[in-house]
Each structure stands twice: as structure tokens, then as C-alpha cells.
What we know:
The structure holds 3 protein chains of 3 kinds. Chain A is 44% helix and 21% strand. By secondary structure, chain A is an alpha/beta fold. Chain A has 11 helices and 10 strands. Chain A folds into 2 domains: 25-120 and 245-314, Bordetella uptake gene, domain 1 (D-Maltodextrin-Binding Protein, domain 2, 3-Layer(aba) Sandwich), CATH 3.40.190.150; 122-221, D-Maltodextrin-Binding Protein, domain 2 (3-Layer(aba) Sandwich), CATH 3.40.190.10. Chain B is 66% helix and 0% strand. In chain B, helix 3 (80-94) packs antiparallel against helix 5. Residues 65-76 of chain B have low confidence and may be disordered. Chain C folds into 2 domains: 2-467, no CATH class; 471-504. Chain C has 23 helices and 2 strands. Chain C has helices at residues 2-15, 18-36, 42-49, 58-83, 92-103, 107-141, 145-159, 167-182, 199-202, 207-224, 228-232, 247-267, 274-289, 302-317, 319-325, 331-342, 351-354, 356-385, 392-411, 414-432, 438-460, 467-470, 472-503, and strands at residues 184-185, 192-193. The longest helix of chain C is centred in the N-terminal third of the chain and has 35 residues, at 107-141. The N and C termini of chain C lie far apart (65 Å). The interface between A and C is large, with 59 and 57 residues.
Amino acid sequence: MRSRLFLILLAALVIGGALPLQAADFPTKEVQIVVPWAAGGATDLIFRAVAATTSKYLGKAVVVVNRPGGGGCIGYTEVANAAPDGYTLVSAITPLTILPHQVKTAFTCKSFDPIINISSDPSMFLTRTDAPWKDLKDFVDFAKTNPNMITVGNSGAGGGVHLVALAFQKAAGVNFNHIPFPGGGPSVTALLGGHINAVSVSPPEGIPQVRAGKLKIVALFADKRFEMFPDVPTVKEQGIGFAMGMWRGLVAPKGTPPEVLKKLHDAFKKGMEDPAFKKSAADMAVNINYLGPADFGKLMVSDDEFYGQLVKEVKR
Amino acid sequence: MKRRDLIGGGVVFLFGAVTAVLSAQMPIGTFRAAGSGLFPLCLGILLMALSGAYMVQVFWSEKRPNEDGTSAAKEEGLSLPVIAFLTIMAVATLFLHTLGYAVVSFLLMAGLLRVLGLKRWPLNVALSLVTAAASHTLFVYVLKIPLPRGFLGI
Amino acid sequence: MLESLQHLATGFGVALSFQNFFYCLVGVVVGTLVGVLPGLGPIAGIALLIPATFGLNATSAIIMLAGIYYGAMYGGSTTSILLNVPGETASVITCIDGYQMAQKGRAGKALAICAVGSFIAGTLGIFGLVFLAPPLAEAALAFGPAEYFSLMVFGFVVLSNVTGGSFLKSLMMAVVGLIIGTIGLDPVTGDGRFAFDSPSLLAGIEFVAVAIGLFGIGEVLVNVAQPAQTLEQKVIVPRFRELYPTLYDLKESIFAILRGAGIGFGVGLVPGPAPVIATYASYMVERKVSRHPEEFGKGAIKGVAGPESANNAACQSAFIPLFAIGIPFAPPTAILLGALLIHGVTPGPMMISEHPELFWGVIASMYIGNFILLLLNLPFVPVFANILRIPKKILLPLVTLFCLTGMYTVNNSTFDIWMMILFGALGFLLRRWAYEGAPLLLALVLGPKLEVAFRQSLMISHGNFEVFITRPISLAFLTATLLFLLVPLLQAFRKRLRSATATA
């Protein structure tokens, strides 16, 4: 009888003691970044690299957890419903603003508080170096005279690069034949084998092959030229006013305390500026582009409206 | 034996029928521009045909239908231990996030051991504790794989 | 050729350095551990250890990570044989005869022949990788959507009755598998199918959940349903003499191993879960060429030796597309690609010339790794075999916990666990109704790819069905499928004709 009472008191002490400890000083345990895609993908790698460098600035381990599925829905839904205590974050990339317009989701970009943006990468079209089109003009002219003939692969129907391709064809006034593939890898492989004419990708997909000279960038959808390939002109320079890319940043569930957000932001900013991360990013041809929470939030909202519009037009 | 096989075939037939009905509600399209529903619809119909053929085969055969070499298990059916097992697993999964892995694995072990006949509680609890602690250590500390922590923080 | 040998020699120099040898050892040990634990696969293992490699140079990092990949293939067969739980998705076929061997007290032989077969196949695979990589890579590129479709059709038809028995029932299971494979996002249009607004269903049913559920939990439940007395019995304790394969066993298995290695190496070049398909193909071949096909399913050692070797060889040839073209064909190699990129190495046609010490160093370390694995696994055979001595009362709950935990680690998803439980119940029912689970799993793997390839081909050809016949590779596979279906029918017809004329 007495021993049971003692056990209950002990349990109460332990539980009671643990609770206030949590709120006191952030972070008291490891921080998890949920990546809503499979391990090994571009997003996964970038966030693993930044997690590795940020750990020492934050003082606690930063761990990447993959929650793939539903084009990102699963991971985003989970974190939108997670406790807003700063220990569960999610990697926010452009599809976050696209998904809610395509399927019924339990979240929108407004279900999260922005922390920081890490990278912004342009999208591009690649073709084989032995393709009959020497440059963008040839490509677009051919598409004009042969509507729906040029096959353009993408990494998934309704996915980011597919929408980029659709938006580009609208801006250029042509029609492509879009072929979906289960990922960036298979789409680039199909191009290499000559089974499709072109592919719509975002770095680091396709970069190794361009470096090796097997593929070339026929259209670069960016505002300025690619650092790694300074001879490639952007589509804007050649007369078509179009640029679209993919941003990758970090967000937390809505309602996370501002001091926690600030601590996370400062730690990740230092992690981004760490030379080890800079080297990893350069090797992956990823373009580091820091944006603070306010700017990042604005970017997400404006993209949300933009894609809402685009998806509606495309879904005619 | 025959009845059991007919029921089995019937269940498969039902599965095919449900698939066909549900896929018919999705856009079908044509073979050239297939909608989402075309493939599952064909599969559902195919399954109904196959299971239908199987049930006919069972019905008309004189010998025991299992002479084809596949052996049906001879044990009891959906007995109480099996249901108990499944229930305990289900409950464990339900509470995985609230109670945390360590607690749930302990409870799971204790429950399953009891179902299988380990009536001596001290041995049961001891085994379950050791197993839960060992697997927790292995996964969380050695392999550094995050497992759910319940409200107790473990 | 001579140049390659010279390079290989340099590679050994790199691989045998104290540092790299150590990392190779770490990699293969972690790989084995990760392979043994069900659910947890090389993908998780590699992903987890990537941060640990940040401080290392590229060569050491890749040596370690690659070790995890092929190490997992060694470990995966252990639980398949002992507990009917596939430790690795590719170890499903090993469950069939391996578990039966264990039930008959021959667990040690099964485990040992796996290690030996994997070693031989892995080593042969490395030679293939070294000498055949560039031409094979080019050949792999020639496969476009139409070719993949025909290949999948061929594989599906040939392999759906992999375990023998009633063709009709196997086909039914296969179609069920195909239907389950459609749950989720339509790969072409992006619409949800059978998702009922649940984001978890939208992701599709995880293959590992079905594999562990059908085979592992299913077997557990079958055991649970048995009357109480049988639960008290221990499994037949393996005698010391029975622990290792005899010379006779080795002689029996060597051709299965060689055939498996060949099949695995070839199939490993196909994108997707090639090791799984390789094991099915090897099992089928072994069953067809065997003089005692009735042994299969009851503990035929060839049914274990062949598929395990195929498994390992496929794992080695999976590196070919990665190193030669720079494109990963399967998830584990995709992560390796990521690791390479992080370390500043861009795989692809340039990699071999830009980083020769990396390429040849990794190749040499693979050979060393396979050797280490053989030395590691063989002595542990008795240890593992004795796990079966644990009374079932305690073993069954342990296995259940094991499966549950491993399942969760794949996607950190409780939904997957639910699926595993569901398929566990289904596996139990399938056993009662005498259906096989293997065709279902195969269909789950091939189905989505088959559908995608079909629709992609038609999209590219603008709806023209001729594309499947005008392309030579595609035509070849479709013809082979037709022959496979027709020849047995013709033979049966001819037999009936002959017996009719004989009795007339």
C-alpha cells in the first residue's frame, strides 16, 4: 500500500517536473525537419546538408525525417497539424503553393509560419546535344509549325516542372506533348535514350549530363544566367518574357511563438552561410538565395495566387 | 472444403465487383487517352471473370479442389487467439503516438505473451520490459532512428 | 582490358588502405544489420549515415555507403529463412523455400548457402560491372516506354505463376495485386484513385507493408491459430551436422547460383525494384530446369541459392546506370547519387575519367566487402539458427514487435502499420483458402509500371498502337510472351491428339 503511494507520488513529480522544462529554453531536444519526399531527392539532399551545418549553431541536433507520399500532401498535412513548439518543421518548396489548388488538402501555405528561404533554382528545358534544334528559336519555331509534336517529359503530371512547361507553352504560344514520368530521374533517362525530345527539369536534375556534354539547356527560365553555365542565355534575353523557378525554404506550424521562430531563423541563416553548406550547394548546382521570414511569406502568398490562377487555366 | 473454397472465390469476386463499380465512377476516357478509371475498371471485370471461372471449376469438380498442389492450412479458423492478436496490434498502433514507442512496445509484448499462454505475470512483465528497453535502445540510440515519443517524453 | 586490370590494381591499393578498409567494414556491418531488421532497408540505412560521411573524403564515404547497400542484401535473407519475415523487399522469394528448410531443421544450411551464393554472385557481378559497364549502360538507355511495357508484360505473364500450382488462382492473386497497385495517385493524370480523400491512401499502399504483412504477420497468425500444444513445442533443433551445407548441397546449388548470378545481373539493369524481379525470375528458372520440381515450396535448396544470388548480382549491376550514365534506377542508388553530389562527385560518363581513384577504389572495396560479408555471416549461422530454439510463445510476440517497429521506420507512418496488420489478416485468410501471396506482390511491383509504360507509349505515339510492334525490342518481348503462352497449349493439344489416335 505504502509502496504504491510512493510510486504515484514519484510519477507525479517526474511528469510535473518535465512539463515546465519544455517551455523554458528552446531548444531542449532535437529539431525535426520533415521532408515530404523520398530520401535522395533534390529537396532531401539540400535539407540534409543544411541540417548538418545548422546543428552546431542551434546547439541541438537537427534531424531530417522523410514522409513521402501524395505529391507532398502527407508530410505537409502532418506538420500543419503538429504542435507549434518549434520542434517540428517542414521543408516548404513551390509545390506547397500548387497542391492546394489541385487536390483537396487540409492545408494551404497559410497554415504555416515562414522561417527562412534557402534556395531558388530556375527551371529549364533540356534536349540532347545531337538534337536538330540548335537553340531556343529553332525549338520554338519547330513547335509552332508542328503543334503537339515535340514530346516534353516531366517528373509527374501536375507537378512543379509540368506546370512550368505548361506555363511556358502558353507564354511562347505553342503546344507541346507532355509525357509524365515517375520522377526526374526517369524523365532524364528517357531523354538520353532518345525516347522523348525534351525534358522539363529543375537542378540538380540533369546537371551531370549537361556537364558531360550529353544534354544541353535549350531554354532557361530564370531572371539571370546560370552561374555554372554562363554561356546559356535565358528565355527572357531571347524575347519571351517568362521566368519560373522553384524555391526551397523552411516553415513551422502556424502559431509557433515568435522567439522560437527567431532562434530557428538565426541558426539556419548561420547554417546556410557555413562554408561546408556553400560547397555542397555549389556541387549540386543549387542556387542559395536567402530570404527572411517576411519576404519569404510574401513570396509564398504571391506564388499561391499565381499558381491558383495557372492551375485554373490549365484545368479547363 | 468445397464450401470454404467457394467462399474464398466469392470474396475475390466481390472485390472485383467493388473495384469495377468504383472505377466506373472515375473518368474513363478511351484507350488512346486513358482516364484514371480505365485500367482499374478492366482489372475489376477481369477479376470477376477469373473468380467466376474458379467458382464454377470448384462447383463442378468431383475431387477435392486442392489436388493442384497448394495445400490449405489444416488448422482452426479465425480463432479467439488470432482475433486477440490482431486486436492487440491494432490497439498498440492506435496509441503509438500518444503513449510513445517505449510504452507501447512493452504493452504489446505483455499482451501478446499473455494471449499465447504465458500466465506467470512476473516473467511476462520482465520479458516485456527487457524487450521494450532493448529495442528502444537499438533503434533510437544505436541506429538513431526517431520513434514516437508519448506524452511522458520517452 | 589490360588497362582495366591496371586500374583495378590501383583500386585495390586505395581500398586496402587502413581507413577505407575500416569504412568498408562499418558499411557492410551496418548494412547487414539494416537488412536483417524487417522494414528498415538500405534506403534508410544509407540516408541515416550520409551526415556521418560529411567529414570524410568522397572515396571513403562511397565505400561505406555502397557497403550498406550490398550488405543489406546479405542480411535480408536471415529473417526470411528463420521467421518467414522478409528482411528486405527482395528477400520475399527466399521466404518460400528458406522458411520450409528452417522448419525441417535445415536453417543453417539455408543461411550458409545464402552467404556463399551471395558471395559468388556478388564477385561475378563486380567483374561484370568492370568490364561490361559502358556497353550495358548504352543498352539500358535503349529501353523506352514501349520496350518497358513489353518487358513488363513478359515478366508478368511468365512470373505470375512463380510457385506453380493452380494457374487460375495465381492469376487471380496477381490481378488483386494489380488492383491494389492502382490505389493512390494516377501517375499520368495526377488524379487520386480509390483514395476517399485520405492523404495516406493517396500515397498508395507501401510494398513493404504488404510484404511483411502477408508473409511475416500472416505466418505469425497461422502459428497463433494452431492448438495450444503445438505452441509448446520448439522447432526441430538443428543438429550440428545439419548446420552447414555438405559437399553434395554445394554441388547441387552451384549451378543455381551461377544461373541466378546471370539472371540477377541482367535484370538489375531494369529501372525500379530490379532485385525483387530478379529473385522471382531466378526461382522460376530453377523450378523449370529442376529434375524434381515438386520439391520447390517444401524446402529445395536451389530455391534459396538461386534467388539469393540473383538478388546480389542485381544489386551490383544496379551500380552500372549510376556510374556510367549518372542516373539511379532504384531508390538506394538514388541516395548514393545524392551522396556523390554532396561530396562533389558528379556521376556520369565523366566520372570514371575525372575520379578514377573513386571508381576503381569503390569497385575494389566491393570485392573486399563481399569477402568480409562472407567471413562475417558464416560463423554467425549457428547463432542465428539457434534463434529458432526460442519457444514459440515468446518468439511470436518478438517477431510481431520486430515487424511493427521495422514497418514504422520505413515511412514514419502509422498508416503503414495499419496496412501491415490488414495484410497480415489477409495473409492468414489466403493460407486458409489456399492462395499464394507471391503473385500478388509481383503484381503490386509490376502493375503501376506496366500501366505507366502503356499510357506513356500511347501518349508519345499519339494513340498509335503500332508502336509496340514496330520497335524491335518491344516486338521481341511480346513475341516471347505469346510463345510462352502458346507453346504449353500446343503441347497439350498435341498430346491429346496423339492419345486420341493411339486409342482409336
